[in-house]
Here is the input.
Amino acid sequence: MSAGAVGAGATGEVPALEVASVSHSFGARRALSDVSITVERGRFMALLGPNGAGKTTLFSLITRLYNNRDGRVAIFGHALDREPSRALARLGVVFQARTLDTDLTVEQNLLYHAALHGIPRKAAKARIAGLLDRVGLTDRRADKVRTLSGGQSRRIEIARSLVHHPSLLLLDEPTVGLDLESRADIVAIVRALVREEGLSVLWATHIFEEIAPEDDAVVLHKGRIVARGKAGTIGRADESLEEAFRRLVSEPAKPAREAA
Amino acid sequence: MSTPVGTSATIASPTSPVAPRETAHLGRLDAVGYLICLGGIVRRELLRFFNQKERFFSALVRPLVWLFIFAAGFRNTLGVSIEPPYQTYVLYEVYVVPGLAVMIQLFNGMQSSLSMVYDREVGSMKVLLTSPYPRWLLLLAKLIAGVTVSVVQAYAFLAIAWFWDLDIPAVGYLAALPAFIAAGLMLGSIGLLLSSMVKQLENFASVMNFVIFPMFFASSALYPLWRIRESSETLYWICECNPFTHAVQLVRFALYGQFEPVSCAVVLGVTFAFFTLAVVAYDPGRGIMARRGGPAGDPS
Here is the structure.
């Protein structure tokens, strides 16, 4: 199947995210080789990969921190290199690192983000109130971020990523370093968004409990996609997803096999 | 299906309870949106600035120490003869005030640049760069925010320095405003470009050594250039070519209600050149971001 066919998703609509044959190198080091990922509208897709697999590079390309050299990235059909504004306007991101200003209040942080997307202040305040309610932190609106717990600031970051009403949400290992309960909260919030608002999600992780068998999943290893499919069907019949993942990432990276 | 599927095939999505849709972006991507974005970035920088009061005071203490101690000590050694814009002999304290005010702006420009490097390390730069607006607008907003802060600091210094009997005409304080803005823009642009070249925060000590100190000392801030010329013609020309000299001269003349066209041209030209280079450096396709593997701290 050619890369060109990626554009039209199975539903015939333009997919939420299309990464087609993307390769990227830093000098001599090849970080991504011929990676193609399609997130369909309203789907939750898990991106699995060990540290150093190229997840962060892929996220950097999708968020246009730097341009891809080969291949194409498009968000709702808007190619990042040709229509970066339209593409980025539809994208919400939760980065792996904590990126809130700890000296500012929750609301100040969210208003800053709203301004980065050109949202008038009044509309932004209303939207923020709604989102704080969704993540269950309405009462912390005027508190400085440094007084929040790790799980709470993550929830604020999710709220922030939604301020401009994106259609595609990217999360880079959002639950790393959180306790079990906060982790479950984060997963529940994002799953509810997919279910109730039809949000499309690309969720990078290596925590298998966060993935449901019916989720779409891709396994990235040494810059290549080594497996893809429904999370429940990746690997052999006798393996769990976790076992399949361990096997896949212990083998030398080979491109994903074609479907039988 | 127990094996991974093909490289580019996608999985048919089952019907979701809610029809997946492309939501409408809440923001505006027109000129109003540009202004909202610009205003938001400036606002954040100001909020951060006012949260760090010690930064404000330490920025003031430095030039005041120079003025209060250094200038007093050198008052008799370093007499300054009549040269424009001064119409009479001036005390050394009077001579150094414009240079010290612009020194605040120099430090401020480098401090903004340092905070950009810090933002890059902690990742909040990534948040900024996911804004749908063009990079030049985001950088311009950072620049304007830094200039706003530096002008406020420069005037706070002038307010205290007023007690030294400087004989600056009232109109001079007003006339100096555009000069301070221009000087701030120039020093901020230099800082922006530096921030793109400094890979890690630790390297910043060398920026102090190799940028701030040479710029400050090889300028007309502390001594008139004819005095330098007496000792070394080469050094004199280095000082003449130093953009910081022109920022100081622009402010010095403006404070006495005069306009220095050459300095103005140099300051504006350097601002334009450095800002353009900074935009190129931060461009996702061409600049340092791609070559170096993105903002510092990206392991993969």
Remarks:
- Residues 1-10 of chain A have pLDDT under 50 and may be disordered.
